Amino acid sequence: MATSPQPQILDLFAGPGGWSEGLRTLGLRDVGIEIDPAACATRAAAGHTTIRADVAAYPTAPFRGKVSGLIASPPCQTFSAAGLRAGNTDLPLCHQVLDDLTRGHDTRDSVRAACTDPRSLLVVEPLRYALDLRPEWIALEEVPAVLPLFEHTAWSLTGVGYSTWTGVLNAADFGVPQTRRRAFLIASRTCPALPPDPTHAKDPGPDTLFGPALEPWVTMADALGWGATDRPVPTVTAGGGKNGGPEPFPTSARKALMDAQRRGSWVLRHSNRRNATVRRADEPAATLLFAKASNDVSWEKAGPAGPESVRISVQEAAALQTFPAGYPFQGTKTRQFEQIGNAVPPLLAAAALRNLAPAVLEVAA
Predict the structure, then answer these.
(1) Backbone angles phi, psi at 335, to 5 degrees
(2) In this model, does residue 78 exceed pLDDT 90?
(3) What is the pTM of this model?
(4) Helices of type H across the chain
(5) What is the pLDDT of residues 189-207, one digit of tens each?
C-alpha cells in the first residue's frame, strides 16, 4: 500500500494559513499543527494540511528525520499590547525553560504551574521542536515584546550549529498595507541567516547609482482597489450573519462608503478608545487587532449630521493582511476576524523566507 508523503515543512501554531499562503507563493506546502477548530476549518477549506492538536502536548518523535523546515508563530495574547501582558511577569520563567531545554531538561510542566498565564510558555515550543528535529532552517514570528526570548532562542540554536538573525520587521516595508511590526528569528544550518531586504519604503526617494528606488508603501486604498483606474473595486459586504456568510450585495451604506472613499474622505479607526489610531485610506493601516474589539475597527467620515461609521468587513481586513481574494475563512464573524488579526501576513511570511531560498527551495526539488 502506498504511503502518503512525509511532511517536510512543519508549521507550529499554524492558524488560518498566513505562513502557508506565503509558502504557496514559493511553490511549497507545509503541514500545520493547530488546535483552534475554526482555524483548522479555514485551513481545510484553503487546501492546507493540518494536524488538529495542542503544539505543547504533541510529541516530536513522529517527525524526526522528516522535517526540513520549521515555522512557528506562537500565540501572542500574553505579550501583546492588546492583552493583559501577563507574559511580562512570566518572562523570567520563559527564559528559565529555554535554558533548561538547551541543557536537555524539559521542565515545562513544573514551570507552567508557576506562570501567571500558562500560555506564556508556548513561546518556548519552537526551541523544543528545533532541538529534537534539527531542521535545516527555522523561521519564527511574534509581537516585538518577545524579541528578548527570540534572542535567547537564537543563542541556543547557535550552540548547535545554526546561523541566526533576530530583529523586528515592519510589514509595510515588504508591500503589506499595514505598519505591523513583528519580531522574527531566522536560522539556517546551510546558509547565512540574514533579514530580508525591504522592497517598499515610506519615503522611497529617487533612483541612485546603486539601483532603482524602493516602491512606496502600499496604501489601504491601493489594496482595496479604491480610486484605482486599472482594477475593479472589490465586492464587499456589511458583515453578513452572525454565523458567517456574506450578504449577496453591498448595502447602501457600504456603497456610500466606497463612493466617499474615492474622494479621500474616509479613515480607518482602530478602536473605540479616545486615543485610537486613525489612518487615512491613502496610508497603510495600523496593526489590525480584533478579538473582542472587532466591532470597533471601522471606517469613519465626518458628515453634516455627525460622524458616519461602518464596520470593516472580513474581506477588507483579509485584503489588508494580504490574504488572497476570497480566502475561505470559516466560523463566526468574530472568529474570522480573530484569525485574520492573529495571522502573519502572507506577503511578510514570503519575505521572511527570501534569504532562506536555497534551503527552502531544496524542499520542493
Answers:
(1) -65, -35
(2) no
(3) 0.86
(4) 18-25, 37-46, 86-102, 108-112, 125-133, 147-158, 220-224, 252-261, 314-320, 333-342, 346-352, 357-364
(5) 999 999 999 999 999 887 7
The three three-digit cell numbers of residue 246, written as one number: 456574506
Report the top-level CATH class of 9-201+341-364.
alpha beta
pLDDT at 277: 86
% residues pLDDT > 70 (the chain) = 79
Indicate the pLDDT class of residue 239, thresholds 50, 70 and 90: very low
Helix (H, G, I), strand (E, B) or coil at 153: helix
- The 3 state secondary structure assigned to 9-62 is EEEECCCCCHHHHHHHHCCCCCEEEECCHHHHHHHHHHCCEEEECCCCCCCCHH
How far is 140 from 160, CA to CA, in rounded Å? 17
Q: Are 141 and 183 in contact (CB under 8 A)?
A: yes
Instruction: State residue 272's pLDDT score.
Output: 75
The pLDDT tens digits for 122-180 are 999 999 999 999 999 999 999 999 999 999 999 999 999 999 999 999 999 999 999 99
Cell of 57: 502536548
Q: Report the C-alpha gap between 182 and 195 in whole angstroms.
A: 13
Q: Which three cell numbers stand for residue 34?
A: 493547530
DSSP string across 60-100:
SGGGTTT-SEEEE----TTTSTTS--HHHHHHHHHHHHHHH
Can you tell me the distance from the alpha carbon of 74 to that of 126, in angstroms, rounded to the nearest whole number? 8
Burial bucket for residue 4 (CB in 10 Å: 0-12, 13-18, 19+): exposed
Q: What is the pLDDT of residues 331-345, one digit of tens each?
A: 999 999 999 999 999
Taking alpha carbons only, the member of 80, 81, 112, 82 closest to residue 96 is 112
- Return the SS3 of 141: strand
Rounded-to-integer distance, Cα 287 and Cα 180, Å: 5
Domain with CATH 3.40.50.150 in the chain: 9-201+341-364
Question: Which residues sit opposite 35 in a β-bridge?
Answer: none
| Continuous segment of H or E residues that includes residue 308 | strand 308-311
- Using DSSP's 3-state secondary structure scheme, residue 162 falls into coil
